[in-house]
């Protein structure tokens, strides 16, 4: 018998922990995106941990900037960044205020509001691909920089919140190198900080970092 997912919002102290504790513990949780057209609920199936100044793969490795400022703020807030001039990606800030740790939300299963997500992800061949990858996830949920800094632990009026869902047991969690990260940050022996649910069809495929070629 499958337990009914718990709809209780996660408290701020859930996020006020080391990033390597928070990241795998987010698997199986529900992310609810409230839009003018209705809510979309996503079950998290893949995440990546980024450990601020201790992590060469982190946006905060070289210090605070206008782009990464939210990472240094209180835990439980949303950090959204724009990448490759076309995509947004969403993170959850965690750890003590000022430490700049965050968890990238890489993939998930749309469990409610799939009809709304499909309108934003017209290229998806099926519902398993709606949020299969961090840019696809943000696109399916209608997340952009306007939501950067959103408090996911605020009242019910917040456009993004995290519910308890159905946490995954440790034997269902796999981990390995982070996707598309260069240098030591992408070394799975040093930073095996991508976590995903074993055998889940919505998890994105692993890709090593490939340097971008400049056009002539």
From TrEMBL:
Keywords: DNA damage, DNA repair, Glycosidase, Hydrolase. The keyword DNA damage applies. The keyword Hydrolase applies. InterPro entries: Formyl_transferase-like_C_sf, MPG, MPG_sf. It is an enzyme of class 3 (hydrolase). GO terms for molecular function: hydrolase activity, acting on glycosyl bonds. It comes from the Bacteria. HAMAP family: 3MGH. Belongs to the DNA glycosylase MPG family. This is Putative 3-methyladenine DNA glycosylase.
């Amino acid at each position: 018998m499958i337990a009914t997912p718990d709809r209780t919002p996660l408290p701020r102290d859930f996020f006020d922990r080391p990033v390597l504790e928070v990241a795998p513990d987010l698997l199986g949780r529900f992310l609810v995106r409230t839009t003018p057209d209705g809510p979309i609920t996503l079950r998290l199936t893949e995440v990546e941990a980024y450990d601020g100044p201790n992590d060469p793969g982190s946006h905060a490795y070289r210090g605070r900037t206008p782009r990464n400022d939210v990472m240094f703020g209180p835990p439980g807030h949303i950090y959204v960044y724009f990448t490759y001039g076309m995509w947004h990606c969403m993170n959850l800030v965690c750890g003590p205020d000022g430490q700049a740790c965050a968890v990238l939300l890489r993939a998930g299963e749309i469990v409610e509001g799939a009809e709304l997500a499909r309108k934003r992800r017209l290229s998806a061949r099926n519902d398993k691909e709606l949020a299969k990858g961090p840019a696809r996830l943000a696109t399916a949920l209608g997340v952009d920089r306007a939501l950067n800094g959103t408090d996911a632990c605020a009242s019910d009026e917040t456009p993004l919140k995290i519910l308890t869902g159905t946490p995954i047991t440790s034997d269902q969690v796999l981990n390995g190198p982070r996707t598309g990260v260069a240098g030591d940050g992408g070394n799975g022996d040093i930073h095996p900080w991508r976590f995903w649910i074993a055998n889940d069809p919505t998890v994105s495929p692993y890709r090593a970092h490939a340097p971008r070629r400049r056009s002539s």
